[in-house]
Automatic annotation (TrEMBL):
It comes from Golovinomyces cichoracearum. The keyword Iron does not apply. Keywords: Copper, Melanin biosynthesis, Metal-binding, Monooxygenase, Oxidoreductase. The keyword Secreted does not apply. It catalyses: L-tyrosine + O2 = L-dopaquinone + H2O; 2 L-dopa + O2 = 2 L-dopaquinone + 2 H2O. InterPro entries: Di-copper_centre_dom_sf, Tyrosinase/Hemocyanin, Tyrosinase_C, Tyrosinase_Cu-bd. It is an enzyme of class 1 (oxidoreductase). Coiled coil: none annotated. One of its GO terms (biological process) is melanin biosynthetic process. Its cofactor is Cu(2+). This is tyrosinase. GO terms for molecular function: metal ion binding; tyrosinase activity. Its EC number is 1.14.18.1. Belongs to the tyrosinase family.
Amino acid sequence: MILDFSFCGIGIIIFWCIGTNALSSSKRSDVKNDIIKNLDESIPHGSIPLRQNILSFQNDRVSLRLSWSSIFSDLELRSLLIQALISLQKKQNTDIYSYYQLAGKLLVFKISCDSELIDEGIHGRPYIPWNNVVKTPGTYDTGYCSHNSVLFLTWHRPYLAIVESSLIAEAQYIAKGYKNKSDEYVEAAKNLRLPYWDWAADPRLPEIATTPNIEIYAWNGTQIVDNPLFQYRFNGPLDPILFPPNEQDGWFSQYSHTVRGANTKSPEEVNHFDVVNTHLQRNNIMSNTWRVLVKSSNFNSFSSTATPGLSLEEIHNNVHSSIGGRYGHMSYLSFSAFDPIFWLHHANIDRLFALWQVLNPDSYLEPQEDVFGNFVILPHSIVDASTNLKPFRNSETGKWWTSTSVRDIKTFSYTYPELQGNQTGKSLKSSVTAAINRLYNPNSTTLQRWKNLKQDGTKNRRQEAKEWSLAMSVFKFDLGGAPFKVLFFMDSVPALSTDWEISDSTIGSVIIFPPPYSSAAEPLPQLITYAEIDLDDGLQRHGRDTMNVTDVIEFLQNQLEWRIQKMDGSPVPNDQVPSLNITLQDEVILKPLDVTEFPIYGEKTLHPDALKSQRK
């Protein structure tokens, strides 16, 4: 039911070539999995399997246990996930659903049209057709993925489902090899779903993704194996025709595996996980995640940097940049999907999207201009909930998946811990609200500030507070297509630009990711992106009274600064980014009465002239 990999309008069954044992990539002909049915048939006893927190696979106890989990120790549960991912990664590049193909380059056999193999790609490089979905004339040379577009969240939902169904197919085969517990392991494999990494609740890389080796329980006992969550090792050098070394991201051709926390282009200076964690924490990811879930009741504003305000895509971008560093794969959209943590990251994006849907059941994608487009969407097209999410097709109807048809996550046979059970309507909304407050706002300066507000003694009456932020907009191609950052400081700015991101004065940053495109594309489009930077935590640390407008503005005029920085850490003069616009704003809020409520946000008041001196 889930995904159709059909060609020229004729459906086909995918014949999987999976290793003869759990850790090999040799061809086996006894397993035939129709990926179209794979997720549906994996549902045990009518239940909806959970996508679990990745931390559940590394702790002494599984924090949210599945119905069958009492059968297994954590080592056994972890082993299915690790072996399935190893099997995907070890497949040959020419294998139809190898990890290499799912993340970037694909080779698909066109059964019903002709008998040739063609190079194809989905998320980033190479920028060529996938699943026989050819490039629309007049579009840019880029991937199918939608960024800086209201399709951002909905497009990635079926994309994750492809990887998830591939992982399940591997796990189901591996499970049959456990001779003494085959039935139990097969049942476990049916429940296996992509884990998510909740970087908002704990903005540090999960330990399970930072160790080169990991212990598993394989068919023949306990083994120490290369950890497939640590890195993906390419099966041979990258094709220089498809991955040109002279392009802006050309240095990636020197890497034999994915890297994180790369401060230089040297393969030896990578995986600085302490720096990654510092960047994650400096970006206020926890408080920003709470704010985007609380403040954004309109889908278009919530989903994408194409609309003014704080968006989930803005937070998503900062996580990408924090993990990759200056030169790592996650910092460049053309290569990011090769890093295994990409899938854990995007599973969490999808989870937050699903939580937001419970809070805002009546708001969904509204028509909006897609200025840049993608491989199949023309620039300046108006996209809406019925826009085809190519190259993903529904096998039952033969139609393309759309934002409307992917709206319910149960369509793809998975759910998340906060959404399990029989709660519906107001009860479910209250439960999800409490979970969001517990996870992302337990000891925040926002709550502390509310506690310090003078009460009037009236019960059941919401109290007023005021929140301050910066509204930012900029053209993505102001630096010729190269990504860049805008960093914000209270107090002094470090003299060395390479120290900006890790400075205690840093209160936030915004990463600008121009969409992947061919360098031959001229002229560069005027693609505007939006962001919102919270000031409340910084104001609280400096003891400012946020209800006193005059005091706050005077303080910010003296203490607030921002800088522009290239990905290599070098500074950029403000006049080289002429489109950058930053405006101070405040909004009155009514604080909640208990943990099952959110604050109510009023209209924003702009202070357009307050930061004149900083703009010079």
